[in-house]
């Protein structure tokens, strides 16, 4: 099972919306049972990022973790959202 973390500035509204959209998309793709999705603020999870397989953020992240993080902004704006969804699905399917 892949562990997905969605982060935003406060870990309340924005990350919840994105997490729900990801869950809905993965369910439609038949991948919903393969993931565990959490949401939080960046400051809450900085020390435990290695616990997650896929990390998405709707806000700026520290330079040291940029390579690990997928921007989730398109899932809010709709611009290039399909590309982000496909990247998430690809990573969920990876062994």
TrEMBL record:
The keyword Transport applies. Gene3D superfamilies: 3.40.50.2300. One of its GO terms (biological process) is phosphoenolpyruvate-dependent sugar phosphotransferase system. Keywords: Sugar transport, Transferase, Transport. GO terms for molecular function: protein-N(PI)-phosphohistidine-sugar phosphotransferase activity. Pfam families: PTS_IIB. InterPro entries: PTS_EIIB-like_sf, PTS_EIIB_2, PTS_EIIB_2/3. This is PTS sugar transporter subunit IIB. It comes from Lactobacillus helsingborgensis. The lineage of its organism: Bacteria, Bacillati, Bacillota, Bacilli, Lactobacillales.
């Amino acid at each position: 099972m892949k562990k997905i973390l969605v982060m935003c500035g406060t870990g309340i509204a924005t990350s919840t919306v994105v997490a729900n959209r990801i869950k809905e998309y993965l369910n439609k793709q038949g991948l919903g049972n393969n993931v565990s999705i959490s949401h939080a603020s960046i400051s809450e999870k900085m020390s435990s990022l290695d616990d997650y397989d896929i990390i998405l953020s709707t806000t700026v992240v520290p330079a040291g973790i940029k390579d690990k993080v997928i921007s989730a902004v398109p899932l809010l704006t709709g611009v290039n959202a399909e590309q982000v969804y496909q990247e998430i699905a690809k990573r969920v399917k990876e062994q």
